[in-house]
Design brief:
binds pyridoxal-5'-phosphate, alpha/beta, Aspartate Aminotransferase, domain 1
Length: about 400
């Protein structure tokens, strides 16, 4: 008779992953009826013309599988936008892969380019999906701390690079700090990638959300990085369409070939009608982006003033739509307890700071606010926090 073997029910890889704290906070916000300043999605409508383009695409019957690496129309629109905005030269057939959000773009890129034994450098604090992508690829995450003002520092980065370094992930504008990487920092990364033969994956999903006249720099345009960079972006943040799940990679042809294989077997294609609508969105006139920046600048200025008035301390965001705030002036509890109390009692949900670090002892005096919300939501949130913290003052 066959011997029964005791085999684990689930793979050991999944044990290294934890559930997304950001989405857990969203569930908690829903449970307690709190305003959700935790997850980075807008509570305002997507632009009417973009929605109309999606409806039109469905009516015109773009309802079957798209070409696996992206509809020709969207890949052309991505190349046009990459040329005028990023300064990247790309060809639709050779260099572009359309994915299910930049989340899949990151996952497909890391799986396509890294393997067991390889190291993937990522800066911390970090958006939460770089580490899981690395673990699922069987590679090893190597966290490198950012400096006090969330800048890339030369010494720790040089120390992290080595013979096993395959990839480095760079995210600018940065979630959760809102910092924008400078050209000097980009040069440092570029030099080290050249020296060690490493490839950079850039997460540029907030490329159009910048404050105080700052300019976005794509790492692919720095030095000789064009052939050693996978540039990732998508429509979620710029076009208020996080639910569409349209992202993309731009990379040199061999890298793109590998990414396309992983993408094909992972998801086949991103939603076909929404790809056509995304092509329309990417071709909007430049004034769209000026208006977007103006609208986010107002939200940023309001939340920065409001949170400082309450007693939070933080680095003023230069881009993206987050504030990573220190709450020690207001409470001595842990970030997790503080976040739960904020959600349950103050009715404003936030994300505990430690969730942006692999070492859970870090970020314990911080919480992250997302301000991609209507001005009325932000006003309500600030006045609820003012009342809550005033009532707790001795
Ligand atoms: N990258 C960063 C830095 C993010 O903050 C987010 C979402 O919050 C994503 C990627 C996910 O983007 P997408 O909706 O394109 O998957």
């Amino acid at each position: 008779m066959a011997q029964k073997t005791r085999r684990p029910l689930v793979s050991s890889r999944t044990k290294l992953l934890s559930e997304s704290v950001i989405r857990e906070m969203t569930r908690m916000a829903d449970k307690y009826g709190a305003l959700n300043l935790a997850q980075g999605f807008p509570d305002f409508a997507a632009p009417a013309n973009i929605k109309a383009a999606a409806v039109k695409a469905i009516e015109e019957d773009y309802n079957q599988y798209a070409v696996t690496w992206g509809s020709p129309n969207l890949r052309s629109a991505i190349c046009e936008k990459a040329a005028w905005f990023n300064g990247i030269r790309a060809e639709p057939d050779k260099n572009v892969t359309v994915t299910c959000g930049s989340t899949e773009a990151m996952m497909a890129s890391v799986i396509a380019l890294a393997e067991p034994g390889d190291e993937v450098i990522m800066f911390e604090p970090a958006y939460e999906n770089y580490r899981p992508s690395t673990i699922l690829a069987g590679a090893t995450p190597v966290p490198v701390p950012l400096g006090q003002g969330f800048e890339i520092e030369e010494e720790p980065l040089k120390k992290a690079f080595g013979a096993q370094t395959k990839l480095i992930v760079v995210n600018t504008p940065h979630n959760p700090s809102g910092r924008v990487t400078t050209e000097a920092e980009m040069r440092l990364v570029a030099d080290l990638c050249q020296d060690y033969g490493a490839i950079a994956i850039t997460d540029e999903i907030y490329e159009h959300i910048l404050y105080g006249g700052r300019k976005h720099i794509s790492l692919a345009t720095v030095g000789d990085m064009a052939d050693r960079t996978v540039t990732i972006s998508g429509v979620s943040k710029t076009y208020t369409a996080t639910g569409w799940r349209i992202g993309y990679t731009i990379a040199e042809a061999t890298l793109t070939g590998a990414i396309r294989k992983v993408h094909d077997y992972m998801t086949v294609c991103a939603p076909a009608p929404l790809q056509e609508a995304a092509a329309f969105a990417l071709r909007l006139p430049r004034s769209f982006y000026t208006d977007l920046q103006r609208s986010y600048q107002k939200k940023r200025d309001f939340i920065v003033k409001g949170l400082k008035g309450i007693g939070f301390e933080f680095y003023d965001p230069e881009g993206a739509y987050y504030v990573l705030a220190d709450f020690q002036n207001l409470s001595r509890t842990s970030d997790k307890d503080f976040s739960v109390a904020m959600t349950k009692d103050c009715k404003v949900a936030v994300v505990p700071g430690s969730s942006f670090y692999s070492d859970g002892r870090k970020g314990r005096t911080q919480v992250r606010f997302s301000y991609s919300k209507k001005e009325s939501t932000l006003r309500k949130a600030v006045s609820m926090m003012e009342a809550y913290f005033a009532s707790r003052r001795p």
